[in-house]
Fold this sequence. Notes:
Helix content is 13%, strand content 37%. It is mainly beta and 149 residues long. The chain has a single domain, classed as lpxc deacetylase, domain 1 (Ribosomal Protein S5, domain 2, 2-Layer Sandwich), CATH 3.30.230.20. The strands form four sheets. A five-stranded mixed sheet has the order 3-4-10-5-6, covered by helices on one side. It has a three-stranded antiparallel sheet with strand order 7-8-9, with no helix packed on it. It has a two-stranded antiparallel sheet with strand order 1-12. Helix 1 packs across helix 2. The longest helix has 10 residues. The radius of gyration is 15 Å and the shape is globular. The termini are close together.
Amino acid sequence: MNPKIPTIDRMDVSRQQTIAAEFSMAGVGIHTGDLSEVTVKPIESGGIRFKRMDLDGQPEIPARLDLVSDTDRGTSLRVGEVSVMTIEHIMGALMGMEVDHVLIELTGLELPILDGSFEPYSQAISAVGLVKLPGSAQMLSLQEPFEVN
């Protein structure tokens, strides 16, 4: 069953934000077991994007619902043959801290699992701080209930 995608509520609740400075974290991917490093950099526009530093051309994958390719034991994004895995912890931290725009550079297929939660990412975001950007944030709002079975 595919739930309806929430529509965008155009209420201008807050301004867009990015992080005040870059930060890096390293660890192993829980599914691949491979060591990877993630560097999160402030950008002023373009949303949340993942950049595969280990691949030729350093391709980018925007964090968009229509690019979700797998949700079995983690969330993966894919554009063509390029993927990123286990993005849910960093995405939870970014959403919880209301970050709209960052570039996430990754040295492998999978983000490091760290302690298995979003807390290390949230702590890093808190440590570097946030910067308000021009323009209002677009908030998603559910218009009706939905179920996922």
